[in-house]
Amino acid sequence: MATLRRGGQGMLRIPIEANPALAAPAWIDVDLDAVAHNVRAFRRLLRPDCRLLAVVKANGYGHGMVRIARTALRSGASELVVASVQEGAQLRDAGITQPILIAGPVVSTEAAAVVQHGLLPSLAGPQLAQALAAHTRRYLPVHLEVDTGMSRHGLSPHELAAFVERLHQRGRLQVAGVYTHFAATGVGDVEAMLRQLAMFLRAVDGVRALRGVRLHACNTLGALLLPDAHLDAVRIGGGIYGFDPFHGSGVAGPLSLRPALALKVRLCGLRSVEAGTAVGYGGAFVCRRASRLALLPIGYGDGLVRELWNGAPLLVRGVRAPIVGVVSMNQTVVDVTEVPDASLGDEVVLLGAQGGDVLRAEDRVGVGGSAYEVTTLLRPGLVRRYLGGGVEGVR
Predict the structure, then answer these.
(1) Burial (0-12, 13-18, 19+ Cβ within 10 Å), 85
(2) What distance in Å separates the CA atoms of residue 118 and residue 50, rounded to the nearest whole number?
């Protein structure tokens, strides 16, 4: 066992073996075995010649981009997808050599970095194409995005042919893929997805120079709903992390996906209050009965956005207990009146399983919301413990 050491002026020093992260009051557990399970499940769903592109943008939807990327690649993914040049560069700095697609806008000033890190940019206009051509001395593979319904990034279908012709005239840029992005968010949106797919395929079929180029359209929802739309590749984001678009729909999905993230915190305070006691900023919540309140050292500064978390149930000793009052920046109060044996130091689960019950990110959002927000907004500085997957550790 290490001993405490004193510095030159008698300062008490912490043993070098101590790891403050292991004693963190709030942390995230990431189950890499669940990630591997989900990737393999999608891999089995696809044809052998259909590539699986793992989407690891936004710090792997809050799970940790580098660890998720490595696990996905080991489990059957062929390539990775990010949202920015910076994310792609981070993966390259971590030693990842597989193809990395930037599925989204890249500004012309980033062209040199795209070339430097060997990334696959998505083109939607001539400015970036010109900048990339100016910074490369060899053929540079690029993807083209066709906008079929999102009205954000991408070429319109009627622009595609002329744009490809200009690329070929300019040289140096080689079209390695063409894709679109479904706007649908629910399992009942099949017809809308089929209309987008038809628009995409008509646009591509009208360009002779794109024959034989890799095509991809499906995200997680599309891959599960439309097997005939898998084309040459699919881009799987939420499904890798265990987000199931069928959850709560009353319809069973084709895959059994396992949530990979659990959010936990240590109970750090307890108090008993009388009926009529106000809780939190503005006194928005008033106890209707004599209550026992627990304090948690986590708040909206850590990612517990009030719109998603006010009033949410948490698990304390396997019993659901609601958040009361508005979530503060670094603290949250929970009513544990129904958990009389709750004690200081208890592990409280905000997302994940405890005592036979499970709280999922999908349960935290209402109409128009996304479960992805729940995990993506979790503060990057929260300790993440990686379990399973052949690698265990703390970051």
Answers:
(1) buried
(2) 23
Straight-line distance from the first to the last Cα atom of the chain, in angstroms, rounded to the nearest whole number: 23
**What tokens appear for 70 in the block?**
């490595």
Hey, is 116 helix, strand or coil? helix
Pairing between β-strand 319-324 and β-strand 332-335 as defined by DSSP bridges: antiparallel
Task: Establish whether 281 is a catalytic residue.
Answer: yes
Q: Select from 163, 157, 158, 159 the least CA-distant residue to 142.
A: 163
The helix (H) or strand (E) run that includes residue 45 is helix 32-45
The answer to whether the beta carbons of residues 321 and 312 sit under 8 Å apart is no
Q: Looking at residues 30-52, what average pLDDT do you find?
A: 98
Give the pLDDT confidence score for residue 1 in this predicted structure: 42
pLDDT band, very low/low/confident/very high, at 365 (cuts 50, 70, 90):
confident
State the residue for tokens 């970051």. 395
Rounded distance between C-alpha atoms, residue 132 and residue 345, angstroms: 55
Share of the chain above pLDDT 70, in %: 92
Contact residues for 331 (Cβ-Cβ < 8 A; gap 6+): 295, 296, 297, 298, 299
264 a catalytic residue: no
Exactly one of 57, 61, 179, 241 is catalytic; name it: 57
From 179, 281, 372, 386, the catalytic residue:
281
Main-chain phi, psi angles of 39, to 5 degrees: -65, -45
Token representation of residue 34? 């669940």
The DSSP secondary-structure symbol of 353 reads E
Cα separation of 216 and 388, whole Å? 31
Tell me how many helices (H) and strands (E) the chain has: 11, 23
SS3 141: strand
Does domain 261-359 correspond to CATH entry 2.40.37.10?
Answer: yes
Query: Where do the structural domains in the chain lie, given as residue ranges?
Result: 32-241, 261-359
| Residue 394: half-sphere exposure toward Cβ, Cα within 13 Å | 11
What dotted CATH number matches 32-241? Answer: 3.20.20.10
The pLDDT value recorded for residue 69 is 98
CA atoms within 13 A of residue 277's CA, in its CB half-sphere: 14
The mean pLDDT value of the chain amounts to 93
pTM value is 0.92
Are residues 52 and 15 in contact, defined by beta-carbon separation less than 8 angstroms? no
Distance of alpha carbon 1 from alpha carbon 25, whole angstroms? 24
Q: Are 215 and 180 in contact (CB under 8 A)?
A: no
- Show the tokens assigned to 238: 């939420």
